[in-house]
Amino acid sequence: MSDILHKETVLVLNRNWQAVNVRTPAHAFCQMMNGTATALEIEGKEMIRPVNWTEWFGLPIRERDAAVYTVHGPIRIPTVIVLANYAKMPIKRPKLCARTIRERDGNRCQYTGKVLKSGEGSIDHIVPRSRGGQDSWENCVWASRSVNTKKGSRLPHEAGLKLLRKPRSVPDAPVSLLIRNSHHIEDWELFMVA
């Protein structure tokens, strides 16, 4: 029982019903009990209604519902809660790392244009760190390992290379774009960004 309470299986919406986070049922129950959130009773797209803690405690457990069992009887675990007083859409600043550089550049060598297989690419500093180059979106590109080795500590033109396009920073993204339904919870799909 305790395992189900501590898996992140509850989608959190702001008061505008936009996905902003994922919580554990334990955390969701606490927010419902103290009135900072209401659960959504969802019966497909046709019937979605907010339910406060007192009413939620008495809802019947349907076949598809997960539940926790207490001395007072079973309690349905919500799949989606709505925060009562939170309207913001949090923004996430992407981290500068190999994965985000690779994704920004479409897993394509920025000197040859070749799409790279797993393990064939690495980060290249356009202005090498040994020559004062910084770890920044504008100075890092995805390149094939062989091209990166050939370039070494030289500037691209010194190695006979030319960038296909000028690297740019990755824009900040609303967290709703980053939430993944890894547990395949059907009710979440109503609120997820496509």
User: What portion of residues is helical?
Assistant: 10-25%
Biggest beta sheet summary: 5 strands, mixed
Beta-strand portion reads 15-25%
Class based on secondary structure composition and strand pairing? alpha+beta
Radius of gyration based on Cα positions: 24 Å
Indicate the low-confidence ranges by residue numbers.
Answer: none
Overall morphology: elongated
Q: How many independent structural domains?
A: 2
How are helices and strands ordered from N to C? HEEHEEHEEEEHEEHE
Strand order of the largest sheet: 2-1-7-3-4
Distance between the termini: 33 Å
The count of helical stretches stands at: 5
Mean pLDDT: 91
What's the arrangement of secondary structure elements?
Layout: H1 2-5, E1 10-13, E2 19-23, H2 25-33, E3 37-43, E4 47-51, H3 53-57, E5 67-70, E6 73-76, E7 80-83, E8 91-92, H4 98-104, E9 121-125, E10 140-144, H5 145-151, E11 173-174
Parallel strand pairs: 1-7
Antiparallel strand pairs: 1-2, 3-4, 3-7, 5-6, 8-11, 9-10
